[in-house]
Predict the 3D structure of the following.
Amino acid sequence: LDPTMCLDPAGCDDTSLPPLPVGSWAHRLGGPGADLPGDLTSIPGGDFMLVGSYDSELCGPGRLVSGTGGRGVVVARDGPNVEQRWVESYGGPGSDDAHGVHVSSTSRVYVTGDFSDTIDFAGSSLTAAGSGDAFVVAMGGLGQISWAARTGGPGGASGLDVASGPDDSVYVVGSFSDTLDLGQVPAADGVDGMIVKLADGGAPEWARVIGGPTSEDVVDSVAVDPDTGDVFVVGSVSASNSGLPGEVEFAGATVATHGSRDAFVASFTADGELRWVHAFGSHVNDLATDVAVDS
């Protein structure tokens, strides 16, 4: 690696690694604690959004973010060469993480993740119902908060990805245990995957559960067709701890699995009706972690 482009020049001794392409860059963001990137997405015009979490403080090119007491959420917009447009941090006394970010066709920014205790988004305060809840926050292109909402229950929930529909509705996916307080939707067993639709403004509309007899089910990613409003999700499900084939309840349908953990891809209408679902895998663990809709 070219030592001038390496995050840690002391670790650039492996000459078998190719140098970064001309015109590329690398920057280090971090501080004295543990700092984690959550998601990255591009914006038309060359800018990009970065979300993640940090302890204590986050240092980087042109920025210094101080903590809020516990583990905090950071949301940043940068230019094509990492010039800082703006950076905001949110948090509370507990542990808070951002896992997904999405920018709509109208340049509204949506961020999802999880929090414990309480979290404050510039005056919009959320309180967890149990051990921790999922959050989604809508922001303008300059970082101004439009609204914030939570979903979860007594067993906890985590938002892993977020997308928006053509009517500015919002879809949050992830996992939860026990029940979702959106109509007291129960988990099948242990930790199950969730798909939650919110109206513009954060009011819940519907929730769907993906789960089997083990605690190994999650929805990792979501995308929405901008023309039809159809919703596409991917993740992984487990029907058996023994690695044998089994069956998983999938939003009212029954899906056969092939091994200890299968990947799946599914589609729903904007009203939450299951259009189709496919599970695929082998006798070992198989995962699907991201989905996109082409133009």
